[in-house]
């Protein structure tokens, strides 16, 4: 009887075990096989990276642009006045060396071309089509001035855009003997009103920065010479 009971128990277990295994197997869901190929997966990864880079780029665009750097100087006119820019944008000459509105950034923007920016107000010196000097919050083509060293080692600043239509004479930044800023078309190159002496501010710019700007001028100069030589060579070979 004991043997018969044990055999019946084994048979019942064998009958129940396959059903339990089937129930467990039915509860498990097979892992879905991906129909995407390896190439498609790589493309999706690449797209996700591009989106990530794009989001970083949009975050970077929100940051303000850094201010242009140059040589901090005071522009001393031959008539005995310093050029100063007041907070309201007024430009005039003054003999007060202790004024806090005398400092300007001379920013090289091309071959012997500079932009003049006040370090106090952040405004740029500009000249309009009528020869009047004004201040601009943003850097525009009217803010470009050609910097030339005169025979007496003074420097002149002439507008890049405007000049006399008939004679072609350049329009210069100038201060008269009364300390007033003059119209560009009334300033002559040979007169003292157009002659300025840039005086470096001690302690604001080190020698390395000055040397870097000087090297930039040298590079522009040699590039200009190379362009002239190349143009002459091409014209000689063609004709």
From TrEMBL:
Report the SUPFAM superfamilies cross-referenced here. Cytokine
Endpoints of the signal sequence: none
Q: Tell me if Chloroplast is a UniProt keyword of this record.
A: no
Key words of the record: Membrane, Transmembrane, Transmembrane helix
Tell me which InterPro entries the record gives. Fibroblast_GF_fam, IL1/FGF
Q: Which Pfam families match?
A: FGF (PF00167)
| Molecular-function GO term, any one | growth factor activity
Record-annotated membrane-spanning stretches: 210-236
Enumerate the residue ranges of region (Disordered).
Answer: 12-34
Asked whether the UniProt record includes Membrane among its keywords, one would answer yes
Protein family: Belongs to the heparin-binding growth factors family.
The protein depicted here goes by the name: Fibroblast growth factor
Source organism of the structure:
Xiphophorus couchianus (Monterrey platyfish)
């Amino acid at each position: 009887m004991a043997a018969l009971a044990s055999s019946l128990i084994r048979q019942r277990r064998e009958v129940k075990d396959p059903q339990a295994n089937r129930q467990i197997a039915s509860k498990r869901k097979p892992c879905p096989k991906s129909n995407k190929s390896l190439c498609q997966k790589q493309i999706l990864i690449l797209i996700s990276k591009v989106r990530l880079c794009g989001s970083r780029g949009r975050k970077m665009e929100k940051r303000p642009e850094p201010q242009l750097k140059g040589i901090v100087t005071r522009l001393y006119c031959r008539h005995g006045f310093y050029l100063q820019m007041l907070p309201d944008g007024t430009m005039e000459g003054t003999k007060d060396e202790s004024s806090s509105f005398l400092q300007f950034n001379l920013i090289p923007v091309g071959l012997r071309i500079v932009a003049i920016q006040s370090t106090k107000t952040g405004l740029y010196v500009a000249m309009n089509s009528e020869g009047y000097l004004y201040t601009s919050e943003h850097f525009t083509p009217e803010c470009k001035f050609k910097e030339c060293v005169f025979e007496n080692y003074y420097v002149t600043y002439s507008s890049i855009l405007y000049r006399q239509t008939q004679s072609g004479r350049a329009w210069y930044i100038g201060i008269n003997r009364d300390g007033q800023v003059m119209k560009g078309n009334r300033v002559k190159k040979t007169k003292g009103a157009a002659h300025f002496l840039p005086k470096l501010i001690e302690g604001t710019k080190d020698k390395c920065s000055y040397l870097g700007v000087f090297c930039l001028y040298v590079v522009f100069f040699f590039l200009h010479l190379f362009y002239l030589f190349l143009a002459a060579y091409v014209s000689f070979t063609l004709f």
